[in-house]
Amino acid sequence: MKKLNYAALPFALFLILGFLFMNSSCSSFSFASNDAQTNTTNDNLSYALKDVNETAPVTLTEQNFESEVFESDIPVVVDFYAKWCGACKKLMPIIDELSSENVGMLKFGILEVDENPNLASEYEIDSIPRLLVFHKGKIVKDIVGYHSKDELKEILTEVCNKCNDM
């Protein structure tokens, strides 16, 4: 009678469970599906607006940056991001929520740095995600890195108060 190799059994079990866990956890973090509520296509982290409305962040480019940012009557939060950036992907839903919660007080825009290298260079974007808040053509706040929704709400409330005093 053959003797079973019990040392290989835990390893095989570990591989099977690891495979099952990876499949289930990866599907919950899939960036390949459309999200109708946030109007995003997360497979490449670019915004494909289905229903253009004032609550969704504006996709900024080198062509529309001046008109969307400098000519705005309200402060504009520009999210400099990259499609490959994990922290940027994590921040996007927060930007969507804050955009819809602050209609009329703040305008939100997103700018993909790899597709708009001149603007990224002009504003010295050397780390992402990075939020620049513009008011009346000037940068009034520079926010580097990922922040939770509550942290950003607090920062942006201070910025709004400051802008109201200007």
Give a description of the structure.
This protein has one domain: Glutaredoxin (3-Layer(aba) Sandwich), CATH 3.40.30. A hairpin with a 2-residue loop joins strand 6 (130-135) and strand 7. The strands form two sheets. Strands 3-5-4-6-7 form a five-stranded mixed β-sheet. It has a two-stranded antiparallel ribbon with strand order 1-2. The chain is α/β, with parallel strands linked by helices. It has helices at residues 8-28, 65-70, 86-101, 117-122, 149-164, and strands at 34-35, 40-41, 58-59, 76-81, 107-112, 130-135, 138-144. Residues 8-52 have low confidence and may be disordered.
Question: Which key terms come to mind for this protein?
Answer:
single chain, 166 residues, alpha/beta, Glutaredoxin, 5-stranded mixed sheet, two-stranded antiparallel ribbon, 19% strand
Summarize the structure.
By secondary structure, this protein is of the alpha/beta class.
CATH topology: Glutaredoxin
Radius of gyration: 21 Å
Shape: globular
Alpha carbon gap, first and last residue: 88 Å
Element pattern in H and E: HEEEHEHEHEEH
User: What average pLDDT do the residues reach?
Assistant: 77
